[in-house]
Every structure is written in C-alpha cells, then in structure tokens.
C-alpha cells in the first residue's frame, strides 16, 4: 500500500443531513472521500469520483463544506488508517494539527 501525504481536508454534510463525510486532497493532486459514492463506484478506467471530490476539482469545496483544514505541514495519510470509528478519530486528529 502506498502512503500519500494529505494537503487539505474538507468535511461535508450528507444529502440527508444525518452524516458527515471527509474528502482528502493529497499533495500529488489526487483526492479521496469516505462517502458511499466514492467508496462503492469505480469507473471503467479504475478511477473514482463523487460529488465531494468533484467540488474539490471545481474549486468549490471551500464554499460548500462544513469545515476544512489546510495543512501547512502535511501529515501522512496512513496516520489516519483505522478500523471502525475511524471517522471520529480522523476528525479529532485533524483538528489538533
């Protein structure tokens, strides 16, 4: 598994308002998200996207997110790896930096 360095994190509210999702921008310009749209769909070429990563690509994420954090000193993506409850731990760690 390749470890990437996180450049920025956005937190978005789900369409129903019952959940929040995190979208990550890595220093290499790629993105990922923990929403079902990103985790469950893969294009024929192997790429992934969701409405949250598309907002990042269109440079609209800052206007539509609940919160964001831009890392002056990037942290390693592997630092956030975890099992159940990872979303809560991930947000708490991100806010401490």
Your description of this structure?
There is one protein chain. By secondary structure, this protein is an alpha+beta fold. The protein is built from four helices and four strands; from the N terminus they run βββαααβα. A four-stranded antiparallel beta sheet has the order 3-2-1-4, sandwiched between helices. It starts with a strand and ends with a helix. Mean pLDDT is 80; it is low at 80-97.
Helical residues, percent? 25-40%
**Major beta-sheet overview:** 4 strands, antiparallel
Distance between the termini: 24 Å
Number of strands: 4
- Specify Rg, calculated over alpha carbons: 13 Å
Strand order of the largest sheet: 3-2-1-4
Can you write the helix and strand succession as a string?
EEEHHHEH
Structural category: alpha+beta
Relative strand content: 25-35%
Described by the principal axes of the CA atoms, the overall outline is globular
Number of helices: 4
Return residue spans where pLDDT drops below 50 for at least 5 consecutive residues.
80-97
Mean pLDDT across all residues, rounded? 80
How would the blueprint of this fold be written?
Elements (H helix, E strand, L loop, with lengths): L4 E9 L6 E7 L4 E3 L2 H5 L10 H7 L3 H4 L2 E10 L9 H11 L1
Antiparallel strand pairs: 1-2, 1-4, 2-3
Summarize the structure in short.
This protein is α+β, with helices and mostly antiparallel strands and 97 residues long.
Task: Based on the model shown, name its key terms.
single chain; 97 residues; alpha+beta; four-stranded antiparallel sheet; 4 helices; 4 strands; 30% strand; globular; disordered C terminus
């Amino acid at each position: 598994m390749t470890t990437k360095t996180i450049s920025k994190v956005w937190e978005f509210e789900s369409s129903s308002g019952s959940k929040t999702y995190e979208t990550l921008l890595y220093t290499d310009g790629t993105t990922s998200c923990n929403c079902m749209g990103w985790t469950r769909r893969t294009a024929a070429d192997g790429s992934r996207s969701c409405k949250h990563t598309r907002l990042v690509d269109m440079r609209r994420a800052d206007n539509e997110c609940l919160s964001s954090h831009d890392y002056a000193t990037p942290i390693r993506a592997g630092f956030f790896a975890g099992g159940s409850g990872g979303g809560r731990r991930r947000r708490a760690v991100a806010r401490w930096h």
